[in-house]
Backbone:
């Protein structure tokens, strides 16, 4: 059972997600000797984070608050043994409330929000915690197959302490009806999909202000940090 | 701290729309960037090299929505411990393939020094729409004698070692190396299980 639970990662080739067909390696990955793979990534200075970098409701505000349901997304970054990882660079990007990305190549016929960019970044604190304020992203259509829609999600890029612990993932929202139709979400084994779904936290909700979600991130490996 | 291992968070694709978050300045979006393609920012003079290349899909077409990160030691062979965007040598770089007409990436850096019995090399992390994982590889440098004895290169089948070696270009205005990444096909790049 333990063995099955550790297999949480998607394959490289997942044909239902069509772009993987020409963009995934066909040969087995090279096994790298232990002494060649423990390469530390740097520690980040406070100067990499600006004042509103973790508040997407403010960091692109021009004259009004962005439209949509205000949310707080918070969680802990840990290694596989539950040890909190501090000073981890967490970067996020997402669609706006209407399901529109600001990216220039995005052609979905939904409005842009002049007061919302959809990008943020943060360093985890001493307890491995991060918190973002944002707007709940909308679902949007994509060209993978007829009538394909992505579930609501926030993209996460996480720079752990070691090279091999780099993670890019997507956070989903609980109970999304599009889970049953999304090959990117389904590329992950059934028993592990819940690990990408945030938990609604009524107790973290800020009354009269924002609903709260918890999204914990477990990076590969056991980290002996440079702080020890 | 607990004894039982927690399941890792599964990996997902970076998707096509990472640029305004991760490489905003390069693409001209209204957000700052803390990691860019100037790994060396000072006028490092003759030590400066440029690394360019393309990422090719299984049909041999250039990929215009990939993101590449480099992490490397400096000329002394040691890594930067504290990253600051304003450091003269940062060691860490990031660039997307979507702003050049030929979908090339380019990094301004220095050739790293050798370290602990390894040939000079740069660690590569590659992301793109259609890839559900970060892909790791390394850039070695054409003509470096230490390549012959590098333990990682030697662990690769001889006929695939060339996929990890950047070639010196004939650009006469600057020191330039070309490192192309092939997702599939005869020249499929060796990717690592880290």
Residues:
């Amino acid at each position: 059972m333990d063995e099955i639970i550790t297999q949480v990662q998607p394959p490289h080739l997942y044909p239902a997600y069509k772009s993987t067909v020409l963009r995934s390696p066909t040969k087995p990955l090279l096994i790298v000797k232990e002494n060649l793979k423990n390469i530390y990534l740097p520690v980040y200075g406070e100067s990499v984070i600006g004042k509103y970098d973790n508040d997407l409701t403010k960091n692109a505000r021009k004259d009004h608050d962005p439209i949509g349901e205000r949310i707080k997304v918070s969680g802990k970054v840990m290694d596989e043994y539950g040890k909190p990882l501090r000073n981890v660079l967490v970067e996020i990007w997402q669609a706006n409330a209407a399901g529109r990305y600001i990216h220039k190549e995005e052609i979905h016929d939904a409005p842009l929000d002049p007061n919302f960019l959809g990008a943020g970044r943060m360093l985890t604190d001493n307890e491995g915690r991060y918190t973002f304020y944002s707007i709940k992203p909308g679902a949007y259509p994509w060209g993978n197959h007829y009538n394909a829609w992505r579930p609501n999600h926030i993209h996460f890029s996480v720079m752990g302490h070691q090279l091999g612990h780099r993670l890019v993932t997507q956070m989903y929202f609980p109970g999304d009806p599009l889970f049953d139709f999304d090959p990117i979400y389904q590329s992950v084994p059934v028993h592990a999909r819940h690990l990408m779904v945030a938990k609604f936290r009524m107790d973290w909700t800020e009354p009269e202000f924002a609903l709260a979600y918890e999204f914990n991130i477990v990076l590969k490996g056991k980290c002996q940090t440079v702080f020890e | 701290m607990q004894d039982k291992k927690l399941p890792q968070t599964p990996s997902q694709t970076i998707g096509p729309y990472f640029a305004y978050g991760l490489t905003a300045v390069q693409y001209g979006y209204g957000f700052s960037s803390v990691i860019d393609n100037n790994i060396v920012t000072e006028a490092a003079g003759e030590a400066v090299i440029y690394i360019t290349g393309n990422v090719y899909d299984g049909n041999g077409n250039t990929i215009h929505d990939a993101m590449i990160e480099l992490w490397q030691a400096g000329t002394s062979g040691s890594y930067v411990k504290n990253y600051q965007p304003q450091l003269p040598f940062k060691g860490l770089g990031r660039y997307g393939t979507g702003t050049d007409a030929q979908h090339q990436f380019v990094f301004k850096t220095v050739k790293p020094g050798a370290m602990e019995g390894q040939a000079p090399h740069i660690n590569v992390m590659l992301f793109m729409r259609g890839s559900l994982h970060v892909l790791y590889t390394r850039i070695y440098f054409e003509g470096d004698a230490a390549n012959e004895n590098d333990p990682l290169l030697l662990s690769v089948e001889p006929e695939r070692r060339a996929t990890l070696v950047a070639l010196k270009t004939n650009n006469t205005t600057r020191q330039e190396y070309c490192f192309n990444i092939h997702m599939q096909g005869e020249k499929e790049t060796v990717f690592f299980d880290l």
